[in-house]
Design goal:
- It is globular and about 35 Å long.
- It has a domain at about 10-55.
- The longest helix has 11 residues, at about 40-50.
- It has 2 helices and no strands.
- The protein is an all-alpha fold.
- It has helices spanning about 10-15, 40-50.
- The structure holds iron/sulfur cluster (SF4).
Length: about 70
């Protein structure tokens, strides 16, 4: 998947094993990814909330054209 933008400084396309671009999948539990390690989208949410920028969380992200 081509998605080069970062969200709240996180490279979600690379850090998420499923390449989710618009928030966490249903496999997140207690902040952890169902595949491995912490869910990057939980980190994104926490960072945006701390900066009072949750509007960025709900923004729709589309894969970039190649
Ligand atoms: S739990 Fe989070 S990091 Fe893991 S696959 Fe789902 S969205 Fe991606």
């Amino acid at each position: 998947m081509a998605f080069k933008d970062k969200v709240a400084g996180f490279d979600v396309a690379k850090k998420c094993p499923k390449g989710m671009l618009n928030g966490p999948c249903g496999g997140v539990a207690n902040g952890m990814c169902e595949v491995k390690g912490p869910c990057v989208w939980v980190k994104v949410y926490a960072k945006l909330k701390s900066k009072n920028r949750l509007d960025e969380f709900t923004k729709v992200r589309m894969p970039n054209a190649k």
